[in-house]
Amino acid sequence: MVLYLRAIWRNVAEMKRIVPITVALVLTCSIATPASAASSFKNCTALRKAYPGGVAKTKAAAKKSGAKYAPAIYAANAKMDRDKDGAACES
């Protein structure tokens, strides 16, 4: 019984050491790659190099136009949606 308790205590002590490292790593990765960093392109030619079918702000617009559903990219490049159908630089 004593050996079993020592083994449990050793695991608890190790977890106390591992958990802060894991939390720090997760926070660092979250800060290093922000989700709000959408690319803004100079023109449709540049956007189509990265997204050949264009980008759409809704799934319905993506399905209708054949563009990739990417609302953050669309928001950063909404000025390129000339016909205001919810898809920018669609083919």
Write up what this structure looks like.
It is a single chain. By secondary structure, the chain is mostly helical. The protein folds into 2 domains: 1-33; 44-88, no CATH class. Helices cover 56% and strands 7% of the residues. The protein has 4 helices and 3 strands. A 3-stranded mixed beta sheet has the order 2-1-3. α3 (59-65) links the parallel β1 (55-56) and β2 (68-69). It is rod-shaped, with a radius of gyration of 24 Å. It starts with a helix and ends with a strand.
Summarize the structure.
This protein is mainly alpha-helical and 91 residues long.
Percent of residues in beta strands: 5-15%
Total beta-strand segments: 3
Rounded to an integer in angstroms, the radius of gyration calculated over CA atoms is: 24 Å
Query: DSSP helix count?
Result: 4
Major β-sheet, in short?
3 strands, mixed
The helix-and-strand class reads mainly alpha
Cα separation of the termini: 71 Å
Q: How many independent structural domains? A: 2
Overall mean pLDDT: 80
> Helix share of residues?
55-70%
The helix/strand order is HHEHEHE
Spatial arrangement of strands, main beta sheet: 2-1-3
Overall outline = rod-shaped
Uncertain residue segments: 32-36
